[in-house]
Amino acid sequence: MNPRKTARLTGAVLIAAAMAVMHSLPASAASSGGTSATDLSTLQFEAENPGLLDAMKRDLGLDATAARTLATAQQTAASTENSLRTALGDSFGGAYFDAAARKLVVGVTDASKAGTVTAAGATAKVVARSAAQLDSAVAQLDAREASAPSSVTGWYADTVTNEIVVTALPGTAQAAKAFAGDVRVVEADAPQPFLKGGDAYTIGGSSRCSVGLTVRGGFVTAGHCAAAGQPSNGTWGGSSFPGNDYAWVRTNSGVTLEPRVGSVTVKGSTSAATGAAVCKAGSTTGWTCGTVGAKNQTVRYPQGAVSGLTASNVRCQPGDSGGGFITNAGQGQGVVSGGNSSVCYFQPLGEILSVYGLSLLTG
């Protein structure tokens, strides 16, 4: 191998080779008089996102046309959520994307503000608690984390039901309620960071994580990956775990950074609403898709608690840690942190970029 050969790096670089074979448009597509502009747009979308679309078909039951329509609806919902959060102020009670209706649902604590929501094209839902009150309740539990029983694995605000939820090991609901009070308890297996030993983006020569999203000068990934040693393709520019679960790698000279996760071009970092479809690319499981769950979750890993994570029902396994979460509209969401058999948590991208002053590469 020529040591001077330039490497090319995209998100989830270990699976990029398997994803980067682009499906060409049929030669007849451009010249067929019977092909509509919408059909051509769908064909182009399918050609540009082969690995991601395969996963969306398998995991979400969506073909290229449905995936493209969903991408547009989710982008609109994300923009609407941001504007209504400001417009509603203290009356904002959280929001989520209704996948069946393809519409944003926004909670309001003041019924008189419902008209503001409907005027923005969303569905209004009167709720008892504001988003600020829910966040405050989560913060109060965070402050008491050290006194939580070991059977309690985390907590979060559920914006769909407008309540606080505590996660706990099977059979320990009563202990969770004794700690947290009047909350809903969900029992599930203990979460673990998704780091895998013995394989290659080797760290310290023995452990593997996944490249997340590329930034100017390197890429972002999971913070717990840094505990295993130095990455094979650069040096740590910064890392934080536990408490947070983010890091970035300053890549070696000769590495060409590309604004892609697999074959999907990164367009930005607008946060998708709870309930929106999202996919991830990891070096173990490749492309897998699901929906965004509750945000601002506190998760108690064996190594310590991490706050501010977002849940999803995307399938992840050891070795996927650090892999990039992205929507099918190309909006980067974050990097794989950990989870269990039913939940995969990711560290939101915006916080990583802000903490380290990084610039996301987009195309």
Automatic annotation (TrEMBL):
Signal peptide: 1-29
GO biological process: proteolysis
Keyword field: Disulfide bond, Hydrolase, Protease, Serine protease, Signal, Zymogen
Record InterPro entries: Pept_S1_alpha_lytic, Pept_S1A_streptogrisin, Peptidase_S1_PA, Peptidase_S1_PA_chymotrypsin, Streptogrisin_prodomain, Trypsin_dom
Gene Ontology terms for molecular function: serine-type endopeptidase activity
Residues the record marks as active site: 224 (charge relay system), 245 (charge relay system), 321 (charge relay system)
Residue ranges constituting the Peptidase S1 domain according to the UniProt record: 243-341
Sequence ranges assigned to domain Peptidase S1A alpha-lytic prodomain in this UniProt record: 129-184
Disulfide bonds: 209-225, 279-289
Gene3D superfamilies in UniProt: 3.30.300.50, Trypsin-like serine proteases
Family, as annotated: Belongs to the peptidase S1 family.
Record-given protein name: Uncharacterized protein
Native species: Kibdelosporangium phytohabitans
